[in-house]
Amino acid sequence: MIPTPEDRHGDFPWWLLVAAGIGAWFLWQILTDDIYTQVLRTLSRGIGITLFVTLVGFAMASAIGLVLAVASLSRFVVLRQLARFYIEILRGVPILVLLLYVAFVIAPAGVAAYNWLRDLVGLDPIRTRDFSLLWRAIIALTLGYSAFIAEVFRAGLQSIEKGQIEAAEALGLNGWLRFRLIVFPQAFRRILPPLGNDFIAMIKDSSLVSVLGVLDVTQLGKVTAAGNFRYFETYNVVTFLYLTMTVTLSLLLRRLERNLRRKYPD
Asked: Which of 30, 158, 221, 226 is the most exposed place for a label (fewest CB within 10 A)?
C-alpha cells in the first residue's frame, strides 16, 4: 500500500479550514440577511431535482458502464467492437450537445417510433411534449457518463492479476463466480476514487439541465436573478449550495477510501 501525503506527514487540511471559514461566513449571511434568506428559500426547491437527476443518472450510467466494460473485455469480437463504438462515440460528444441532441432529436424520434408501434395495435398515440424534459436530461447524462464510467470499470477489471483468475479457474469456479467473488470486489476498491470523481462531476454537470428549463438549483437561480436583479446574492447562494454538496461528498469519499485501504491493504 502506497501511503498518501497525509499518512506520511500528518498534514493538517488547512484548505478545509479556510473553506469552512468562508462557508460559515456565507451561512451567516444567509441566516441574517433577508435577501439571502429569500434567495435560499427559493433555490432550496431545486436541490431535490439536482440530487434526483444526479442519483438516478449515475445509477443508470454505472449499470450501463459495467455492462460495456465487461463487453469490451469479452472474447467475442462483435461485443468488443460494439462496446468500443459506443464508448468512443459518446466520449467524443460534449455533454451539453448530447443533452440537446437527446432532448430534441432522439426523444421526438423515440416518440414517433413508439406511436408507430401503437398504431399497429390500434392504441392512441402520445405527444412528444408528454416525454418529460426532466427524463430527457437524465437519459442524456446517463448516456454521456456511461461511456466514461465504462473506461473506469475496464481499467479496474484489467488491473486484477491473471494469477488470481487462473487460481479461481483451478478451483472450478465458472466465469460468473470468478467475476462476482474474485475480480469485481478487488476491482471495486481500485475504481472507487475515479468513480467518486465522476459522481461529483455529474453533480456539477447536472446544472446543464437548466438549458431545458428543468427547475434545478441553477435554473431557479437564473429565474430568481432575472426577477430581483440581485445577481451577486443569488449566484453566491447557487455557488454555496453546489460547493456544500461537492465538498461534503468529496470528504466522505476520501474517508471511505482511507478506510478501505486500511481494511483491505494491497
From this structure: 226
| Mean pLDDT of all residues in 179-195 | 83
Please, what is the Cα angle at 261 between 54 and 197, to 5 degrees?
25
DSSP 132-173: -HHHHHHHHHHHHHHHHHHHHHHHHHHTS-HHHHHHHHHTT-
Domain coordinates in residue numbering, the chain = 29-263
* Residue closest to 42 by CA, chosen among 232, 234, 229, 205: 234
* pLDDT over 70 (residue 59): yes
- CA 156-162-167 angle, 5° bins: 120
pLDDT at 5 over 60: no
Q: Which residue has the cell 460547493?
A: 243
Question: Which one-letter amino acid corresponds to residue 180?
Answer: R
> What's the pTM value of the predicted model, to 2 decimals?
0.86
Question: In whole angstroms, what is the distance from residue 156 CA to residue 266 CA?
Answer: 14
Q: Is 10 helix (H, G, I), strand (E, B) or coil?
A: coil
The single residue listed with the C-alpha cell 429569500 is 38
- C-alpha dist (Å) from residue 122 to 111, 119, 126, 154, 233: 16, 5, 13, 45, 55
Amino acid code (one letter) for 218: T
Instruction: Summarize pLDDT for 196-224 with one digit per residue, the tens.
Output: 999 999 999 999 999 999 999 999 999 99
Nearest to 151 by CA among 74, 246, 62: 62
CATH topology assigned to domain 29-263 = MetI-like fold (1.10.3720)
Contact of 178 with 168, CB cutoff 8 Å? yes
Mean pLDDT of the chain: 87
Closest C-alpha among 172, 170, 161, 239 to residue 204? 239
**Cell reading at 154:** 475496464
